[in-house]
Amino acid sequence: MKSVIKSAIIVSIAAAAVLSAGCCSKSAEDKAFEAAFVNITDVVPDAILEIRYYSTYNFVGARIDGYEQPTALLTREAAEALRQVSDDLLAQGYRIKIFDAYRPQMAVDHFVRWAADVPDTLMKRYFYPDLDKSVLFEQEYIMEKSGHTRGSTVDLTLFDMALEKEVDMGGTFDWFGPESHPDFGGNPDEAVFTGECSQSPAGRTITPEQFANRMILRSAMLRHGFKALDSEWWHFTLEDEPFKDSYFNHPVRQL
Hints:
Blueprint: H1 2-24, H2 28-36, E1 37-39, H3 40-43, E2 48-49, E3 73-75, H4 76-90, E4 94-100, H5 105-116, H6 124-127, E5 153-160, E6 165-166, E7 186-187, E8 192-193, H7 208-223, E9 226-229, E10 232-238
């Protein structure tokens, strides 16, 4: 009788182990994603993370779908290029501060649903005070696809190590307006301040120092293989991104 009971226990333990392994095993898709992507801080340990879409301080005012942990992921190629940027900027007295990197499609879908809900203007005064929310699709502040979802795009700013604070860029991350454009106040291709700010609907301006700070970040990113976006001073994509036509939906969490 004891041997029968012992055998039954062994079989139960084995069955439980099989079930546990099955529940915890990763799909082929998960394995492929994890082979292609890295935690940014594993490659760039000096990077500071302030993942806005994991928090409620963003233009939606809620944690965004797919952001399961306050971490940042990139393709291996983009992370390696970003490490070179970081080393370059460290020599100038700055660390990089990251607001967002890889963004799953479920997060983009969340943005689209939010934009369609025109009466929800909880965060309007912080991120789009000069715009009626109904124009966000028309003016392409919100789109159904994002380069972030391909995994080689990063949103970032500078942190001054001597002053121990974020560098003044003359505007906040995710501000919806011409004040976010790299050419606001100057010529970004030549890094020349002109003071031309007439495109601001509320008459906002940028100082020579703020424009110069944007150019420090931009120049470092372009030197190390990233390309800029003409509507956001903080947004850069790896020129030779490995997944030009792939839009991933893996959640943001530590790999």
